[in-house]
Write a structure and sequence with these properties.
The chain has eleven helices and no strands. The protein is mainly alpha-helical and 259 residues long. The protein has one domain. The longest helix is centred in the last third of the chain and has 32 residues, at 227-258. It is elongated. The mean pLDDT is 86.
Amino acid sequence: MSTETAYQTWYMTRRHLTAIMRQPVVLVITLVQPVIWLFLFGSLFRKVVELPGFGSGSYLDYLVPGVVVMSAVSSNMWAGMGTLEEIERGTLNRYLTTPVSRAALMNANVVQQGLSTAVQSVLIVLLGKLGGADYPGGAAGLLVLLAASVLLGTVFGAASNAIGMLVRQRESIIGINSFLLLPLTFLSSAFMAPGLMPSWMRHIADFNPVNWALVAGRSAMSADPRWSVVLGRGGALLALAAAAVWLSTRTFRSYQRSV
């Protein structure tokens, strides 16, 4: 990416961030669901750690990375709705008449979603700490969890943008997201330890990018981090994020030729 493209991407990102800051209700709503997951599920399932094979002293300790990762997924899956709104309003087409980089137009939304994911993740971690969660991995472990959530958010944000460009219908985006969210959640270790999952679910989870982020984050946050696992899952997430951004950009170019 050239310096000019990077500057244009940041300029467009600031535009998205300004629009969000003008709607503080949206910021509050994006935190409601994570808070419900964190404290409602944390209270409801707190005794599950007593089951043999769970392997964690506190369910809240186990739950915080799960809520961070699932919040990244659920919020970024709707990035395509913003792209679709700009298409419907004609904003995107007006930008096509300017010399701004096409990559900047497409990726600014992903960067904005990544920054929002990072802030949301930090707030969830702080709420978990206030609730009594312990993070043995320290600052390094929390940074890995933060990076994993942002990378995973980039995967789903870029993919959602690509879908928005292809289908151009709100109903289709809503249907796809609703179809994917539950399987992605429960075919991972977000809320349940792998040792208590059926074997077929554990095998599927090995190929689930949501679980890659969870494994990387939890491994780094443990008292004895497994850095080979962190690098392996983190590298896979990075590669998938790069592929999703490339697909999003290619889809945008296809849209550009159609208008």
